[in-house]
Design a protein that fits this description.
It is built from three helices and no strands. It is an all-alpha fold. It is found in: Cell membrane; Membrane.
Length: about 130
Amino acid sequence: MASVLTRLRGVEAYVVAAAVLGVGVLLFVAAMAARWLFAPRTRTVASGTTYESGVDPVGTGWAQTQVRYLVYAFLYVIFAVDAVYLFPWALVARGHLGRASLVEVGVFIGIILIGLAHAARRGLLKWT
């Protein structure tokens, strides 16, 4: 009897996972059915034209963007990853971690500071 109950407890996790998957599929099917029911079906000239951020396209469509925005994106990603790594580590560090983990985080922060110093030296942190 105990082995049957143990097997049933293991099956409960699969039942919950299957239920979540089933609800997800039902929501997807409901969204597609609502789109099919309520979406307009007539094709107009306006629905076939390109629409970009509220601006009608003019010219050839070739435009150059400045590379500095890509650098800002990279800097954001670097510091977002830094925060994503450091906050969980700080929560765990409230317990008792050894010197090895402290050294690892010191190396990690050191690499981030080297990247920040490099960005500052190249003038990437100026808002002018």
